[in-house]
Structures are given as structure tokens and as C-alpha cells.
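Retro notes, structure queue

What went well: the backlog is down to a handful. What didn't: a couple of records were mislabeled last round, so from now on we paste the full input next to the output in the thread. Example, using MerR family transcriptional regulator from Marinactinospora rubrisoli:
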Amino acid sequence: MITIGQLAGYIGVSTKTIRVYHDKGLLPEPGRDASGYRRYGANDAIDLIKIRTLAEAGVPLARIRALRSATGEEFQQALREIDDDLAARIRRLRKTQGRLRRLAAGQLTPLPPEVGVHLENLAGWGFTPRWVDLQRDLWILVFATHPDRAGALFQDQAEMLAEPELRRLFLDYDHAHDLDADDPRIDGLARRIVEATRERYGSGELPQMGAATEIPALIQSTVNAASPAWQRLDTLIRARLDA
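Corresponding output:
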């Protein structure tokens, strides 16, 4: 028979914790001996190990108390459920740890890997850092707000940029950022974009330029806000596509 202090030291908890377990009805409180000390035996140590293990697994004390009256089969089933919950928590924590490590490495973009590769390609193709940053921010918005459709839209743009002639249009669009809104080169660029768009999509819905959907509107409104020249370019493109 051992004292509460010896039991606490052996199991690795505080005496205060043991007293809380007594108050919560988790661990029966033994009577006192002739010297006035409460004495604990092997069964108390085993019970305390069970309680501590379940508590450390995140099981609420109320459920631990209820498990004291469970049958052997019920207890084993409860342990399997607790183990499944713990495994799920571990997976979530590992994902969080991965995000934390990417944050520490400066990798802040919550985008699919293929989008990250695409953004790196943009820089290699001669797009300005401003354009690459804008594309990153736009894809973050699109994947966050329309995850069910973002992948298809991204694939469409990636395929376009894989074609040198279409990529030239995007590069010219990028470099038009600093032009005056009334620069005649904007009219010529708008005409070329409309021709390429009609050639790619025909007379059907134009997912990139003319479709009345939320995603193109989200993208284009953000692009237009960045440059008066881009805003006029969009106005010309829409007018010619509608015509």
C-alpha cells in the first residue's frame, strides 16, 4: 500500500490531479489508515493509468467516468473509436505541421502543386513579377471560392499558355499594363485577343473572356482594377465579342 504522493510519482501525475479524479468520481477514494493517511494499492495504480491514458487521448472526463461501468466488449469498442479519433487528429496535426513548415520556408500559397509549377513557368516565359503575383492571387481566390470549377478553368488557361502564339497574347496583355488608356496599341491587342478567342471557342460559351459566370467576373474585375489600360482593353474585348 502506498500514499497518494507515491502513487502520483509512480504514474506521473500530480496529487492535485488524483484528487480531481476523486471529486469527479473517476477514481474511488480509499479509506484512511490508523495514521490518517489514505493508502492505494495495485488496482488503484492500474485504474489511474487507464484514466490518465484516456485523458491524454482527449477523452472527456465525463466519458471516462461512464466507461468505468462499461462491459469488457463495450470498453474495447470505445477504445477502438477513441483510437480512430486520435488517428484522425494526428493526420490533421501532420497537415498543420506541413503548412507550418511551408510557412517557415516562405511557401505561403495555398494552391495545388500544378499551379505552383505554372507560376514558375510564367516567370521563365518572360512575364513580369507583377503579372505572376496577380495570377497567384487570382488563383487563390478562384480555388477558395469555386473549388469545384477552378481545376477545369486552370487547365484551360494552362493549355492556352502552352501554345506560343496564345502565350504571346498573354505577354502583350501583361506588358500593356503601363500604357495610357487611349494608346492605339490597346485597340490592336483587343482585336487580336478577340480573333484568338473566337478561333479557340467558336460561337459557344467563352469561359475566359465573355461568359456570364462568377469566376471570369471575379478574375476580370481584379485585373481591371490594376490598370486603366487593362480596363479599357477588357471593355473593347467585351464589346467586340458581343458584336
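Agreed that this is the format going forward. Reviewer comment attached to the example: The CA atoms of residues 180 and 229 lie 6 Å apart.
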